[in-house]
Amino acid sequence: MTEIIDLLLALSQEIKDIKARIELIRATRAECLKDTWIDNQDVLQALHISQRTLQTFRSNGTLPYSKIQGKFYYKVSDIEELLQSNYYNPNFKCDGNK
Asked: Closest Cα to residue 66, out of 33, 40, 34?
């Protein structure tokens, strides 16, 4: 009976190790994507905005960009920062309390 318990404990530990590795890979991938550059079309689709709105974001400095031969590129991390800075949750007061 103790052999079965020992096997179960070893199996449980191996599952925990695999889970930790998966989380590490997931976090690494997310970190890599933050440094990724995407073009106009990807931003339009991701934010569900028009070309004119994106042009306004560029013009007023809301969204940083890079321009190469007439084509615009944006960092994913800058888009995430824009979304986070405009995050609003009506269920919470400004101090974070309900």
From this structure: 40
